[in-house]
Each structure stands twice: as structure tokens, then as C-alpha cells.
Amino acid sequence: MASGFRGEVATYYARHRRGYPPEVLDALATAFGLGGDDTVIDLGCGTGQLSIPLAARVRAVVGVDPEPDMLALARQAAVDAATTNTAWVLGADRDVPTLGHLLGERTIGALTVAVAIHFMDRDALFRTIRPLVRPGGGVAVITNGVPLWSQDTRWSEALRGCLERLVGRPVTATCDTDAAGRRRNRNALVRAGYRYAESVVQYDAPLTIEDMVGGVFSAIPAELLPSAADRATFTAEVRDALDGRDAVTERVRVWLQFGTAHVPAR
Ligand SMILES: C[S@@+](CC[C@H](N)C(=O)[O-])C[C@H]1O[C@@H](n2cnc3c(N)ncnc32)[C@H](O)[C@@H]1O
């Protein structure tokens, strides 16, 4: 069930991946009318980037992930943020029916899947979660920008060059953040009978070289992480390729795709 996000990779993830701005949480809350009575399942919660701020808006968030190291860091982040309404469950998309037995039918306001849908069987997931969702609630599939090495900027191109030299092959992974991935999400939500809507939150933010390099190492499966010496060489190469700059500006586009469970007619 493990997916490679463990050990140092998990630490890089917690330290260097972006969280979500309040506008993303507003969009989620508005889409499903989320409030103080709602429980949300954040599937593929990682180190809690979305689960923890979301918990401030609802009754409780259940963060689910197959990687114990990611969950341990999420739990610690919740403690550090004095968040007391999160629970952390070791599991994966195929464990959703078990969660159904635990929580009961029509009990959740939303299932969120942020930067993790590419690991899951969409059709099965959207179908099996449906009985657990209260009317007007639903499923949100979220991307947090696109991978740092695949953006349409000079700094991203330079990073991609360094990364390709490090791994010795072209790097093309989009993690389903592209239009084709979003189309697959939309089609699967519609097939499962949800009403579909989408929105984008866009902002510019600084990206330090440290976060850029840490972001790359947070995306490499633990067993393929380079040696400490190769990581240092890579960091120096990235710095050179960016002409010694300490930071660049990243345009982050957060796509939110909503599938709403219909409210029954009175
Ligand atoms: C890129 S991280 C996303 C973390 C977080 N949601 C965020 O927005 O930053 C992907 C997460 O999905 C988890 N994952 C991988 N396969 C999964 C599966 N089949 N079911 C649930 N989560 C999975 C990984 O362990 C990892 O923590």
C-alpha cells in the first residue's frame, strides 16, 4: 500500500510544500455549504497541508493516507497548530467502504483529494464515497499548482534541465495536474452521478531555491532519493542555473473540481 512518501521524503514534503490560501478554503466551504456540523475526509492527506486549515472551518477532519511517516508529520503539524479536531487514519482509497461502516451513511460534508487523485481509482472512489456524503455535500479534487519542473517559465526549464541530468532521463510527470488529468476527473465525477463545477484560485508567491530543491526531493520516491553528496551537487547546479538568485516568483494555480451530491427534491 506504500507510495514512496516516507523517511526523508516525508520530511522534505512537510518542510517545503506549499499549503493552501484562505481563498481555496472559502471556495471549498461555499461549494458544499461546509460548516461547524460537518465532517470532512481528506484522502491522501500527506502531511496535512489541506486537512489542518480545513479543520478550522468544520466539526472534524479525518486525514487518511497510506504512508505512516506522512501521517506522523501531519499529526505533529496539528499539535503544533493547536488543532484538536483532526484524526489521522492509515489507509488508502480502497479503504473508503470501511470508513463508511465507521462514520455511517450521509454523514460527511465532503471528501477532499488534493494532489493525490493520480494514485487512485477515480471511478471506484467516487462511486463508493457517494452513500457517505450528505445531500449538498460532495467530492473536491484539488491540484496545488503544477510540478515545479514542468511550468512554463525560464526558471522551471532550468530546474528541469538540472533534474534530468540528476536522474539521467527526460522528466515529464505532470501528476494529472494538466488538462487531460482534469478531464479524467470531471468525466469520472459526472459518470458517478455528481453535479459538476470547477474554479481556479491563482496567486503569485516567492519560491526560494531551498524550497524549490526541497520540493523536488519531496516528489522522488524514497528508494530513489540521491545520496547526500548528489543532493548537494544538484542544489549547487540549480543555484548556478538560476544565476545565483535566492528566489523566483511562482504563479500558483489551484484548480478545484467539485462533484456535488444532489439535494433531493421536497
Ligand atoms: C502529493 S501528496 C499530497 C498531500 C496533500 N494532500 C497535499 O495537498 O499536499 C500525495 C499523498 O497521497 C498519498 N497516497 C498515495 N497513494 C494513495 C492512495 N491509494 N490512497 C490515498 N492516498 C494515497 C501519498 O502517500 C501522499 O501522502
From TrEMBL:
- Annotated keywords: Methyltransferase, Transferase
Keyword Methyltransferase found: yes
Give all residue intervals belonging to the Methyltransferase domain. Answer: 40-137
Q: Which Pfam families match?
A: Methyltransf_25 (PF13649)
GO biological processes: methylation
Q: Which domain of life is it from?
A: Bacteria
Please indicate if the UniProt record lists Methyltransferase as a keyword: yes
- Enumerate the InterPro entries for this protein: Diverse_substrate_MTase (IPR051052), Methyltransf_25 (IPR041698), SAM-dependent_MTases_sf (IPR029063)
Q: What would be an example GO MF term here?
A: methyltransferase activity
**Name recorded for this polypeptide:** Class I SAM-dependent methyltransferase
List the source organism: Micromonospora zingiberis
